[in-house]
Queue: 2 jobs
Job 1
Amino acid sequence: MATRSFTFGGYGTSVATIDDVAELALRLPDVTESERHGNRTWYVARKAFAWERPFSKADLRRFGEQTPPEGPILAVRVEDLGEKEAVLAAHPEAFFTISHFDGYSAVLIQLRKVSAPALREAITDGWLACAPPALASQFLNP
């Protein structure tokens, strides 16, 4: 599978933005962008695979005395809970979870800290986790 190179902001900046997420997500087949709960969300086959995820008041209370990761924050689906643990272990500097996501196959990404390759891989993997099998197969085996 050939992938085009990607740099944040298209100008080699070092910090990812939600617009960078949109650019990466919309490169994938059959992706639509919409708004859910007031936040940008990307779908394949009517399944959300990536979405902007600011912290709710309840999330902030759960952090207690800890400082929450700075936004913007992106949530991305993963294949299953085993994959979630693997992704969290592989990218502890930018990927994390919160108690609201316990038992749910998705990770959170601090866009200020993620590398371009890790973000591209996470969005692609999220898409693969939600895409219909035939579409995923066609994407992986052109």
Job 2
Amino acid sequence: MQVARRLPVVTDATPAAAAPRSVRVSLTDRCDLACLYCRPSRSDGYLESRLDDGAWRAMLEGLAAAGVRRVRFTGGEPLLFRSLEAVVAHAVELGFEDVAVTTNATRLAARAALLRAAGLQRITISLDSLDAARFARLTRGGRLDEVLAGVDAALAARFDEVKLNAVVLRGENDAELADLVRFAWARGIVPRFLEVMPVGEGARLVPDRLVTMREMRAQLAPLLVDDTAVADPDRGPARYVAADGFVRPCLSKDDGASARLAAEAGDAGAIAAAVGRAWELKPDGLVWKGCTEETARRVSMRAVGG
């Protein structure tokens, strides 16, 4: 029996709720890659200070107290955060119903089993090309073999779910979509293709490099069922928590509420209050134009865990 496969390409926006149920937690702004759509160069600078382990534990406790049920750890590159396994384990202990990580997988081969043992449920791996030379160019020096080893390690660790993310750029990897799909499906992985966002560095690329969702679906039509894309409940659009202890209700603005002092003091209640203040600043989706707003160009995708 032949089973039709479904390929997530885009998800519909979900209406605002009374409080956020899911967040992205950017544990570090550091990254060992410098992807063209994310960073201007490898020497673009980093935050001067970051939360310590105790503050991150308090941050998670505050998020749980605020009603958050799903947490995704990002960066920069979260595997550069030395205590990632301990932070994951603490999130699991707090009872978050979904704990996930997004990674470039350059360091995943050595840590996949440890993360699984800590209780990590799901993992998403960024993989923009299967061609080693193109991958190195897109990431400014990344090694494809390291990432593929990370993919293998993630599968061996038997996470509940493994996904691949590919940002599609015209004239770069836009001819690889079918190859990436077959690579993923052959391994039981869900592939996802992302439009380059007009945020930070991505804003420079949009005029010439944007490949729209409609174009991607047309190219992949022979591999897709003829059906409407369906959003995963509570998985998008995501809410973001930056590496400096700042809670952001929207990726495209720098508005929000600081929870740094509360996190460093271990005050979960104050963190929950900061989440509430940030949520009140969430833009009205009826008038707010999101990534096309001028404020989006001033946001650092690497720093906020995009």
